[in-house]
Amino acid sequence: MGETKDLDLWTTSPAISLRVRDGFQLESVDRAATVGWPGSKKEGNKARKERGDLLDELQERLIAEARSGQKRRVLLVLQGMDTAGKGSLINKVAGMVDPQGVEISSFGVPTEEEASHDFLWRIEKRLPKPGMIGIFDRSHYEDVLVQKVENLAPPEEIERRYGAINDFETSLVDDGVTVIKIALLISYQEQGYRLLRRLARRDKHWKYSPSDVATREKWSAYDAAYQAMFERTSTDYAPWYAVPADNKWYARLAVTEILTQELAKMAPRWPEMDWDVEAEAKKVLETIPAIAARAAQKPLEKQAAKVAEESKIYREEVFDAVRDDATRDGGDRVANV
Ligand code: AMP
Ligand code: MG
């Protein structure tokens, strides 16, 4: 059992409560809710930062693992209407881990070249490399969302894409990718306020596009496209999480928790080295004159053994605690080693 952390106030893990299962109805989601989190915003932000430390270690283990030939990686897909908070979520979540372990890709209106290929062409080029956390700011799902609502592709092509996406994600999972799909759900009213706030700030104008209003006017058509997307593409191997996002702090907290738990379930391990720690420690100790000179009182062998022993216990306990938490909290997805 993992130790209970003071700041872990979750009553139900968001990995369970926000997961899109059969029978999911988008219209019954309260987008201002803080599902499973009875604590305050302040406590939420604190808890997220605390989780960040673990996330950071898990990610480093994943990178280390890849060095020794493992292919595992994570793909975090973010979808949401304009102002849903994709950008600031990336800023906060990616900011908690080593930037060298994160690959962020944004997908906008397809270029001429991209449009001349199958819709997955540009996506495949941006898949995370082994050991990395890939974050998609919009994704192949735009091809069944905006393209459906705006009739940018014929209905039978949209229909084909749901299946193509499931096949594609199956192949990703088989190839060692943990696929986590996050839909940031804001309310119509909240989006109105956020767009106004953008307009009221010179430094936010670059994020605004006059077409945002036209998109907003099609709100219910987008809701319908999201509902269809959830029904057709939330699978056991690559589930969607419907995250209420009117409270930005809650969305960040929930996504951090889901991501950390998925990484913990992957259980990345520090790789075994093909050299002997104790022997190497002794060699290094011999090169440090101050230590080598005192070797008569404190034999180098003993010091080397101590170094080797310390390396074994380093943070293993912390790791086991998180993994136990994540497995206990369930999710039916197991590590695909
Ligand atoms: P933003 O994320 O606000 O910079 O805007 C990117 C824009 O590109 C959004 O309006 C998206 O709907 C649009 N977009 C992204 N992918 C596609 C796609 N496959 N087809 C059409 N529009 C897209
Ligand atoms: Mg935009």
UniProtKB/TrEMBL annotation:
SUPFAM superfamilies: P-loop containing nucleoside triphosphate hydrolases (SSF52540). InterPro entries: P-loop_NTPase, PPK2-rel_1, PPK2-related. Keywords: Transferase. GO terms for biological process: polyphosphate metabolic process. Residues 48-267 form the Polyphosphate kinase-2-related domain. The keyword Calcium does not apply. The keyword Transferase applies. GO terms for molecular function: phosphotransferase activity, phosphate group as acceptor. This is PPK2 family polyphosphate:nucleotide phosphotransferase. The lineage of its organism: Bacteria, Bacillati, Actinomycetota, Actinomycetes, Actinomycetales.
